[in-house]
Amino acid sequence: MNFLEMAQDIKQELISIRRDIHMYPELGYEEFRTSKKIKEFLDREGIKYIETAKTGICGIINGNGNKTIGIRADMDALPLKDNKTCEYSSKINGKMHACGHDAHTTILLGVAKILNSIKSELNGNIKLFFEPAEETTGGAKVMIEEGVLQNPNVDKVIGLHVEPDIEVGKIGIKMGVVNASSNPFTIKIKGKGAHGAHPDTGIDPVLIASSVVVVLQNIVSREIPPTDPAVITIGTIHGGTAQNIIPEEVTISGIIRTLRREHRSYVKRRLVEVTEGIVNSMRGKCEIDIEESYPCLYNDDETTKMVVKCASSLIKEENIKMLSNPSMGVESFAYFSMERPSAFYYLGCGNKAKGILNPAHGSLFDIDEECLPIGVAIQCKTAFELLK
Fold first, then answer.
1. Is the pTM of this model over 0.90?
2. pLDDT tens track for 82-95
3. Confidence (pLDDT) at 1
4. What class does CATH assign to 3-179+296-386?
5. Which free-text remark accompanies the cofactor (predicted)?
6. Whether residue 25 has a cis bond before it, omega within 30° of 0
7. Which residues are annotated as a binding site for Mn(2+)?
8. Binding site residues, as ranges?
């Protein structure tokens, strides 16, 4: 089965789909037009589907057998102005597909078209996960809660992400942990207001907050092994109304990033202990809220090796880059990886010769569209072989 040839045959259709989605970006849980376009495509191909997670879609291709492979693509864009000058730049002011989700959706539609055309040769079923809101709260979690991994039961899940730092025609993939977990947090520190000239009559929450910001870094530098990455970032500090007034309250917000489950639990606990200890010792009071956001993304060894094997047969072994370091960024595919053996990899979309090298989440981000049929072929080949 020559999946690369089959994908190249529909390249112009893929490019047309991708450009259409790119021109009309939609934010998380607002992907109504995108969802409508996906459903129209699936209807034309005769592929059954259900609606899930508000604007998400789960398609199903029934082959021969009980085994089922899930393939995921995210759909949402970012609240960012598109500063590219090209025929397919965003037509929606302040919104842009700056992370390649338009390409991911297009690739999964290409996969759907090809695998549905050979469904009589599939040794099982294919589920197509079109996920909304990846950039915000993660539609994957809602999709899973609504049962997309059941009826029929999904055995494995694969996913990809375009990457401009990797040249088109290549992929990057890592064994084990791929992305960090995240825990956003808010700390509200309460003191006692006073005149700035008489600090002894008040309890200064600004000073307390300053101490908390500094000492929290000790958790990373002195309590987590230096061989294991972890991050505590303070992103905002708000408090006060004038230069000569000690305010009554200061609010700090930030995020925790860790790569191990045990470190995630440890850092959350220590953040509370350290903050309460400092605040209490300086006569203040505090309220701490730590959110449970994306978990770590883990690549299953067996599934990852299959991706490598299939990709090598399509684009040659020398174009497979085995990544050694995980990313401290987060990825909602992690929710699937926590539920089923999974593999997630990076599809090269950069091309310096064409000037396509701007990073994701930037206003000039673009892809070399030659990556589209390559992504389709690798996903098709991997799913086909996993069903065996």
1. yes
2. 999 999 999 999 99
3. 87
4. alpha beta
5. The Mn(2+) ion enhances activity.
6. no
7. 99, 101, 135, 161, 361
8. 99, 101, 135, 161, 361
